[in-house]
Amino acid sequence: MCLILEKGFMIANITTKKLVGMGVALVTPFTADGSVDFDALGRLVEYQIKNKADYLVILGTTAETPTLLEQEKEAIKSFIVERVAGRVPLVLGVGGNCTASVVEQAKNVDPRTFSAILSVTPYYNKPSQEGIYQHYKAVAESSSVPVILYNVPGRTGVNMTAQTTLRLAREFDNIVAIKEASGNITQMDEIIENKPENFVVISGDDGVTFPLITLGAVGVISVIGNAFPAEFSKMVRLALNGEYESARKIHAKFNELFSLLFVDGNPAGVKSMLSMMGFIENRLRLPLVPTSIATDERMKQILDTL
Question: Which residues belong to the active site?
Answer without folding.
Answer: 150, 179
